[in-house]
Amino acid sequence: MAKKIHVEYRVFREQDVLTGETAEHFVRGIQSAVAARGIARIAISGGGSPQPVFALLADPKAPYRDAIPWNRLWIFWVDDRCVPPENQDSNFGAARELLLDKVPLAPDHAIRIEGELDPEEAAARYESAIRGHFRLEGAEVPIFDVLQLGMGDDGHCASLFPHTAALHETGRVAVANHVPQQKQSWRVTLTWPVINAARDVFFLIDGAAKADPLGRVLQGPYDPETLPSQLIQPQNGGLLFLLDTAAAARLPPPNADGTGTLEIAR
């Protein structure tokens, strides 16, 4: 029997509104997790799209910084390139500059991928850190409270790139993935079953270059080898996309309030 995925997409005309709504989504998810379980664990992605969100979350003049219980929050990374944190291509390094160094988050509450290490060692150490933090046993997977993804113009998400080995890994928490088509060809990434286990999975996507691949991901034939973002099928049955108008151009026009829905069978 086909699995039904309920997709909600919200389309914003102004970039600053998209940034603010994304920041608000993080805050609501963190507050909800702390209220329910006393702790919040989020996983963030790199790329250009979330960087304004990180800066806004750290801005003392914005309403979000003081709304986050930083002492109850742990931040993880969906993926990172195998480079030192000082490298301009480091997802951790960008988040540190824009967010971590400007908020009262304890250093040990940011559990990073050690990209300066050998890729396989970095993946093993990251998986060990996650398993220890979540106190996982056996085949258990971590359940993140909020997990943010982006999408490339090739349909990849996390560091799950088309036709790469990590697409077929279902037993690990994190793996090293060789991506020959990228400048930084070695990555460490969470696996897609771990992503799908999160309580709240959402994509933040902007730009016209993403319109065609997003349309194919959500409305085209199921071909995750070519469009890895199709692997994202949250266990809770729901998936959210926060989009600008350019990225949403190939989707059905949203309602007057900027929202739209799709039901996808996988």
Brief overview, please?
This protein has helices spanning 15-37, 51-58, 91-98, 119-134, 192-197, 211-219, and strands at 4-12, 40-44, 73-77, 79-81, 110-111, 146-149, 174-178, 186-190, 201-205, 238-244, 259-265. It is α/β, with parallel strands linked by helices and 266 residues long. The chain is globular and about 45 Å long.
Radius of gyration: 17 Å
CATH fold label: Rossmann fold
Shape: globular
Runs in which pLDDT lies below 50 for 5 or more consecutive residues are: none
Q: Any idea how many domains? A: 1
Mean pLDDT: 97
Instruction: Describe the largest sheet.
Output: 8 strands, mixed
**What is the CATH first-level class name?**
Alpha Beta
Number of DSSP E strands: 11
Q: How widely separated are the two ends?
A: 9 Å
Q: What oligomeric state is this?
A: single chain
Query: What strand order characterises the main sheet?
Result: 5-3-2-6-9-10-1-11
Structural class: alpha/beta
CATH architecture: 3-Layer(aba) Sandwich
Q: What letter string, H or E per element, gives the SSE order?
A: EHEHEEHEHEEEHEHEE
Number of helices: 6
Beta-sheet strand percentage? 15-25%
Helical content band: 25-40%
